[in-house]
Specification:
Layout (H helix, E strand, L loop, with lengths): L12 H7 L3 H5 L1 H5 L4 H20 L5 E6 L5 E5 L8 E2 L2 E5 H7 L23 H6 L1 E10 L2 E8 L3 E2 L4 E5 L6 E8 L11 H14 L4 E6 L6 E5 L5 H9 L10 E7 L2 E9 L6 E6 L2 E2 L3 E2 H20 L12 H5 L2 E9 L4 E2 L5 E2 L2 H21 L1 H34 L20 E6 L1 H10 L5 E6 L11 H4 L3 H10 L16 E5 L4 H17 L1 H5 L3 E4 L4 E5 L2 E5 L2 H10 L8 E2 L8 H9 L6 E3 L5 H12 L3 H11 L9
Parallel strand pairs: 1-10, 14-17, 16-19, 20-21, 20-22, 22-23
Antiparallel strand pairs: 1-2, 2-9, 3-4, 5-6, 5-9, 6-7, 6-8, 10-11, 12-13, 13-17, 14-15, 18-19, 23-27, 24-25, 24-26
Helix pairs in contact: 4-7, 9-11, 9-12, 13-19, 16-20
The structure holds 3-[3-(1H-pyrrolo[2,3-b]pyridin-5-yl)phenyl]propanoic acid.
Length: 643
């Protein structure tokens, strides 16, 4: 912190800037953007885009252009009012724009009435982006003038905001062009797919806002325009596109009261999973919260009341449970409120109690109205829920059966599990291995104290196409559930998981890839918490081996092979493609894939549950042309596939 100047007269604006400067951001970037890895890098983009979206929400911006420039910098241009350029009352001699870019949390501090900050992913402000950039160029079109100010080396202004020309005719707006600081971030390469996914969701959540994306990097050129006049109705349609919808219509209602508003869009599909995705001020609330609670409570009431009124549920019948009603439901709940409280492990849970009653009231009134007005669809919803309740009872029997069988089985562990000796879950790992022969080498390669092996025979059941009762009768799935030891589906309790890491180990070929996808789908659908809390990993056995002198080198993929050739320009041996895990000796398998000190694991994360949901449906569902298209366009994306 700056020492206070002695002469009182010299205590002025510059001292304040020192006190409130950007250094803390550079000292602890993680506190402001979560990490300095790829997620943190992309937060920079979200922060700038969120500012522009706020301007759109305030009603002043209709279009946002996000461009990754040829040199790798990111540029965000909006057609809002433009950040104010006049002198800031509290900072004599400095423009408001300079303050917004150099003072933490300055974004909403002025403008009084005019500017209510709402989004801002973490509300940290665009000054954080400036602090973590090697260079940032701010452009503002306002009052007919084009203004510019350049910042360098973590947000140092290079002079004052200046008029450098006139604004294009009638244009107002802000442009921010920034180059992330390579000394702060592990890597500074923006991933187009990540940016696109986020921009599309932004466009869904902000009806009629046009968001354009362009990648100008050589060899990676791409362009995309997102604009949805239906808003979240279009979002629901999009999500159900990969599924068979129960009816054509998508329902919608909204309600607002002082300081907060809710929008809901919904449609059922013929599948067995619920996919309710909720957002608060455009931020995904992956852990749910008050808005989801209000919705769930009300939809259960409304549908039961409706079913009884129409005599689709008789007096003697039990009420339908919420889970019966939500089977196959795709819904988006989007709320906006003044001071969102994000809680929970990943700050993905909305804590504001007042929003619960708003969503509950809105759903009670308006969903009931929708059912009255759409009797055909209403009947279909009830019929599906009744079927689901019957399946639920059958599933309970299957689950009880599984439990009883396990109880008879001594410790309740499946016979083919080769368990580890440690009983401390924090250090234990479970390798799920495809095929018996690979299972054999994995057994020899493991550290028997901390590493357990569960061989899986052939392809497991595709859980996307079966209801819970059938899923639980499958022996491979029973073995998985028993080995992990934390129950399944509604009964799943992540605190009981017997291993810290659940690692999928399958061949690097098409079959292995299919097995991996089936397993990931199973975990995502039936043990969602396991995935969300980061327990699931994919092992990465090498794809190539080659001899360097007498030493065998292993290379994970084509990228590693290319790098190897760059480092060994004189390398003459033709590379060997490893076909399967079974081909490796146990010591090779240990050294390349299993030994915690040498291996590289891929952690499975679900940044956007809606997206993972969609991917599961596409990969495991019935729509073959759509699946083919997905695989062709995403084949290089190692997160899910490596065909
Ligand atoms: C403060 C006050 C006003 C607008 C903005 C900030 C503003 C910030 C950003 C960041 C990206 N695009 C932006 N657009 C606007 C209100 C200005 C007024 O009252 O005219």
């Amino acid at each position: 912190m700056a020492e206070k100047s002695k002469g009182s007269a010299s205590y002025g604006a510059s001292d304040i800037t020192v006190l409130e400067g950007l250094d803390p951001v550079r000292v602890r970037p993680g506190m402001y953007i979560g990490s300095t890895g790829p997620a943190g890098l992309h937060h920079l983009v979200w922060e700038v885009v969120d500012n522009a979206v706020d301007e759109a929400m305030a009603g002043y911006c209709t279009r946002i252009d996000v461009t990754i420039l040829a040199d790798g910098r990111c540029q965000v241009v909006d057609d809002g009012r433009g950040i104010p350029v006049d002198e800031h009352p509290q900072y004599p001699g400095k423009s408001a724009a300079e303050i917004v870019l150099t003072v933490l949390h300055a974004g909403g501090k002025f403008g009084g009435e005019g500017y209510k900050v709402s989004g801002g992913l973490h509300g940290v402000g665009v000054s954080v982006v400036n602090a973590l950039s090697k260079e940032l160029i701010l452009g503002i079109d306002r009052d007919g003038d084009h203004h510019e100010l350049i910042f360098k080396d973590g947000g140092k202004p290079q002079g004052k905001l200046k008029v450098t020309g006139s604004a294009p005719r009638g244009r107002t707006g802000t442009s921010v062009t920034f180059a992330p600081d390579p000394t702060i971030f592990e890597e500074i390469d923006f991933r187009a797919q990540t940016v696109l996914e986020r921009l599309q969701i932004m466009a869904f959540l902000n009806r009629s806002l046009e968001i354009r994306f362009e990648d100008q990097r050589p060899g990676r050129e791409a362009k995309e325009v997102f604009k949805y006049n239906g808003g979240i109705v279009d979002y629901v349609r999009h999500l159900n596109n990969s599924k068979e919808s129960l009816f054509r219509k998508v329902g919608f209602y909204e309600q607002s009261e002082e300081g907060q508003e809710v929008e809901v869009a919904f449609q059922w599909n013929t599948g067995y999973y619920e996919s309710i995705h909720s957002f608060a001020n455009g931020i995904s609330t992956i852990e749910g919260g008050m808005h989801e609670e209000g919705f769930r409570k009300a939809i259960t009431n409304v549908v039961n009341r409706y079913a009884r009124k129409r005599n689709l549920l008789k007096e003697k019948d039990d009420n339908l449970l919420g889970e019966d009603i939500r089977e196959g439901l795709t819904a988006i709940i989007s709320v906006r409120l003044a001071e969102p409280q994000f809680e929970g492990q990943t700050k993905g849970k909305l804590g504001n109690v007042s929003i619960r009653s708003l969503v509950e009231r809105a759903t009670n009134e308006k969903l009931a109205e929708w059912l009255e007005e759409n009797p055909k669809e209403g009947g279909q919803v009830v019929a599906k829920a009744v079927q689901a309740s019957r399946a639920r009872m059958a599933a309970r029997q299957a689950r009880d059966l599984t439990r009883r069988k396990n109880a008879l089985d001594g410790a309740g562990l499946p016979g083919k599990l080769v368990d580890c000796s440690s009983r401390d879950p924090r250090e234990c790992e479970l390798f799920i291995v495809e095929g018996n022969s690979a299972g054999g080498s994995a057994k020899d390669a493991r550290d028997p104290r901390t590493q357990a092996i569960l061989p899986i025979r052939g392809k497991i059941l595709n859980v996307e196409k079966a209801r819970t009762d059938k899923i639980l009768k499958n022996t491979e799935i029973q073995a998985l559930v028993a080995a992990i030891g934390a129950g399944v589906e509604a009964d799943f309790d992540v605190s009981k998981v017997r291993y810290d890491k659940i690692i999928l180990l399958a061949d690097a070929d098409v079959d292995g890839s299919h097995i991996r996808t089936l397993l990931l789908t199973f975990f995502f659908r039936q043990m969602t918490e396991l995935v969300n809390s980061g327990h699931v990993y994919v092992a990465q056995p090498p794809l190539y081996s080659t001899l360097v002198g007498k030493e065998k080198s292993y290379l994970r993929d084509d990228g590693a092979k290319t790098k190897f050739l760059e480092q060994h320009p004189d390398h003459k041996n033709e590379f060997q493609r490893l076909k399967g895990l079974g081909e490796m000796d146990y010591d090779e398998l240990r050294d390349t894939t299993m030994d915690p000190t040498k291996r590289a694991l891929l952690q499975i994360t679900v940044e956007q549950a809606a997206l993972a949901d969609e991917v599961c449906s596409i990969l495991m569902g019935d729509d073959v042309p759509q699946r083919r298209h997905f695989i062709q366009t995403n084949a290089k994306d190692v997160r899910f596939l490596d065909i």
